[in-house]
Amino acid sequence: MKQVMIKLIENIAKFGLDKLERALLFGLGLVIVLALATGSVQMSAKWVSFLFRWMHVISGVMWIGLLWYFNFVQIPSMPKIPDEQKPAIGKVIAPAALFWFRWAALSTVVTGLILLSLNGIGYAIEALLLGYFKGGSATFIGVGMWLGLIMAFNVWNIIWPNQQKALGLVEATDDEKKAAARIAMLTSRFNTMFSIPMLYFMVAAQNLP
Fold it and tell me: Is the whole model's pTM more than 0.85, yes or no?
C-alpha cells in the first residue's frame, strides 16, 4: 500500500505537484469533481450556507494552524537556533507565515459573519447577544464568535504591528524591537489560550442541543 501511494504521488507530481499553486488548484478541482459525483452540490440556500461554512472552516484551519505553529514550534525553538541562522527565520519564514496568519484571521471573520447573516437576522442578533444566556446553539456560537473576534482584533492591532517592529519591517530602536517582540509573543500566547474555548464552542454549536 505504501509503495502504491508513493507511486501515485510521483505520477501526479509530473503535472507540477511540487508547486503549491498547482497543488491547490488540483485540490479545488478534486473537490469539485467529487462534490458533483456524489451529488453534494445543490442549488439551494442551505447549500450556499454550507459553502460559506466550508470556507469558514478552511480559513480557520489556516489561522489557528499558524497560531499553534508559532506557539508550539517557532517561539520555543528560537532559543535553540544559532544566532547566525536566526535571520532566516526573521527575514524569510516569519514574514511569510505572518502574511497568511493575518489574512486567514480576516477571512475567518468575514466568512463567519456572512455565514451568521445567512442564518437570519434574528439568529444573528441572538448570537451576538450570546443567545440571551439561555444555552443552545445561539449561545454557543455567540461565545465562540466573540472569542474569535477578540483574537482577530489582537492579530491585526497588536501582534502584527509589534511583529513589524520586532522583525525590522518598520523602523524601531533595539529597545523598541525587544519590547515589541515580547508584546507580540504574550498576545500570541493569549490568543492560544482563547483558541481552546473558542474551538470548543464552535464545535458545540454544531453538535450539542
Answer: yes
Distances (CA, A) of 9 to 1, 12, 22, 45: 12, 5, 14, 37
Query: Using one digit for the tens of pLDDT, what is the confidence trace for 58-68?
Result: 999 999 999 99
Helix segments in 70-209, DSSP class H: 75-77, 86-88, 94-118, 121-128, 137-154, 160-166, 174-207
In the chain, where are the structural domains located?
Answer: 1-41, 43-207
pLDDT in tens, 170-186: 999 999 999 999 999 99
Q: Which residues contact 101 (CB under 8 A, 6 or more apart)?
A: 63, 66, 67, 70, 155
CA distance 100 to 96: 7
- Of 202, 199, 48, the closest CA to residue 127 belongs to 202
